[in-house]
Design goal:
By secondary structure, the chain is mostly helical. 51% of the residues lie in helices and 10% in strands. It has nine helices and seven strands. It has helices spanning 3-25, 29-51, 58-67, 73-92, 97-118, 137-148, 164-180, 188-211, 214-224; strands at residues 257-259, 263-266, 275-279, 287-290, 295-300, 303-308, 312-314. Strand 2 (263-266) and strand 3 form a beta hairpin. Helix 2 (29-51) packs across helix 3 (58-67), helix 2 crosses helix 4 and helix 2 runs parallel beside helix 5. The longest helix has 24 residues, at 188-211. The two termini are 53 Å apart.
Length: 315
């Protein structure tokens, strides 16, 4: 399929979704379901083309795509639901608003999946090719072990060589190392240094007491002097002031809005935003603020969402 054909198909799919939503807003539910089925046919024809699946009737094409693992089981069920609602609208003249919203909701989900998974998908390569050249982890570990080991006995060769004098010298060095690693053993020099430090500290304390004898006396006198507590008299008490009364600013109640028809709740202020849910006609919304002239911010299931302002009415 040429790149221009792919672009045209995707443009037609997006335009069809917008038209289906517009028809719901105009309460033309029958035409909306027919439009949803037409968009479904575009997606199925595109997938059959890149999957090399024969294009028969719509139901058989959907089943063939599922059997060849090009669509999931959930997507297959959604496709059949949209197809049946469209057939009911064409052959039986169904004009039910709930069915139209259900068809549009399923179509929006599958168009989002189509854009992310199938739009740029190419033909799948043959399965099972290219695996014979891969090595198993066990073969790599065996090669590493064989390269690390030398010939048998190579590690122990030469251990017994050397004279007895070398062996005795090694034993002596090992014994000295053991003595050093046994812990710190103080010597006489260490005791002398410790004694000199203590003498210097005692001398400094003695000189400090001789140079500043008056400070200790002043400190002792100040610590033993009695303290008298003074209490305020009625004349010295500050005048009591009347308690301040807080004035509460009047609050303006939030406006109350309700839907005038079935309305989609979206994650972004755009018709391309993800649909979070559907509000039935006459539902009172949790109004937050106006986003712009076309969209209103609401609280929906504990988070911020957006709805079209043209389908809201002030209660």
């Amino acid at each position: 399929m040429a790149a221009s054909d792919i672009a045209n198909t995707w443009a037609n799919i997006r335009q069809g979704v917008k038209e289906a939503e517009t028809l719901i807003g105009e309460k033309k539910y029958n035409l909306s379901m027919v439009k949803s089925r037409q968009v479904l046919e575009l997606m199925v024809d595109y997938l059959c083309g890149i999957a090399s699946v024969s294009k028969e009737d719509l139901a058989s094409s959907i089943d063939d795509l599922y059997d060849s693992e090009w669509i999931s089981k959930t997507t297959c069920e959604h496709y059949h639901k949209i197809r049946m609602l469209g057939n009911k609208a064409v052959h039986e003249g169904n004009d039910n608003g709930y069915d139209a919203n259900q068809a549009y909701h399923l179509l929006s989900q599958e168009v989002y999946t189509f854009a992310n998974e199938y739009k740029s998908k190419k033909k799948r390569p043959d399965r099972g090719t290219g695996r014979s050249s891969e090595r198993s982890p066990g073969s790599r570990n065996t090669a590493r072990r064989s390269s690390d080991r030398g010939p048998s006995g190579s590690r122990n060769s030469g251990r017994g060589s050397g004279s007895s004098s070398r062996g005795s010298g090694r034993r002596g060095s090992r014994s000295r190392r053991r003595q050093k690693s046994g812990g710190f053993v103080p010597t006489a020099t260490d005791f002398i240094r410790l004694g000199l430090i203590l003498v210097v500290i005692v001398a400094i304390v003695f000189l400090v007491r001789l140079v500043m004898p008056g400070n200790e006396e002043t400190t002792a006198e100040s610590s033993t002097a009695p303290t008298t507590a003074t209490f305020p008299t009625p004349e010295t008490l500050p005048p009591t002031l009347p308690p301040e009364t807080e004035t509460m600013a009047p609050t303006t109640p939030a406006p109350v809005y309700k839907t005038t028809s079935s309305l989609n709740v979206r994650s972004e202020p755009s018709t391309a935003g993800e649909i979070l849910g559907l509000l039935e006609s006459g539902t009172i919304i949790d109004y937050v603020e106006d986003y712009d002239d076309e969209w209103t911010v609401i609280n929906y299931n504990g988070s911020t969402a957006y709805v079209s302002s043209q389908y809201l009415a002030h209660d």
